[in-house]
Amino acid sequence: MSHFSKLTAATLAFGSLLIGIANAETVLRSSDTHPDGYPTVEAVKYMGELIKQRTNGRYSIEVYHSAQLGEEKDTIEQTQSGVIDLDRVSMGPFNGIVPETAVPSLPYMFRSVEHMRHVMDGPVGDQILKAFEAHDLVGLAFYDSGARSFYNTKKDIASIADLKGMKFRVIQSDVFVDMVNALGANATPMAYGEVYSALQTGVIDGAENNWPSFESAKHYEVAKHYTLDQHQIVPEVLVMSKASWDKLSPEDQTIVRQAAKDSVVKMRELWDAQEKKSRDIVEKAGVKVSEIDKQPLIDAMKPVYDKYLSTPELKDLAARIQAAK
Ligand code: GTR
Known about the structure:
about 325 residues, alpha/beta, five-stranded mixed sheet, globular, signal, TRAP_DctP, TRAP_DctP_sf, DctP_fam, receptor
């Protein structure tokens, strides 16, 4: 073999080795608005470890936390178009895209977190996961998000009358907008990343969220009044881009789906611990937590239910959720 062809052979061998390495691992890009360490972020990382083990290193997941890939509404579009492989988002921003997601997002639809877990783990959850497929997405799993409650920079809220005229930031979803407006307050839909400064500058009087978000986004530094009205128990969703999904073999699709399901168990453990920790942090920081009579809020939701339970299918979904033990 000439010197030249030896070199060529070596180069080719090295090249194919590189290609081999490149083929060995496909890194799926996953988006999350929350910071590193947040239960949703850690759950998707855990799912990535499971996938890596179960595919012998052919697939793994890189979680881009802290909204590095954009705010939730944008990342949903990017996931639909295949730019992002996986997206962990609240169900809220999907309400205008996948009508079925409006049902579990309705205020006071779930009686408790246990009720939500039970329903989302069963046939209703499966039906909603399936509904994403008509929108270029594959629904993989639901995660916990506790209960959302109002908080504000102005005053303690003891009754529905105190909400009147107050300006609350909500998720970019008409369900959320209509909920706040039905309570006599004013809704301002806004991306999550803009809420802190909007609270600080007084563009809004308050927002609404669960303990871990209220704490990790530091909203509690400016909003010192938290009202335990627990108006929504909205699950989080993990979706995959249909385009990315279609690149997987059927065997790998099964592995990804199962790993997502397995990560739910882990997420719930992390969630339960984080809720307590976050509540503790904000209370120690001087946030005043007030109780409120929920019944007038529940009663005010009648027009919101009528608007979103607009077809026999959606009514049936709501009835099945409510009937579940
Ligand atoms: C959180 C949720 C986020 C985001 C945020 C918001 O509870 O985990 O995905 O939707 O609420 O209010 O925008």
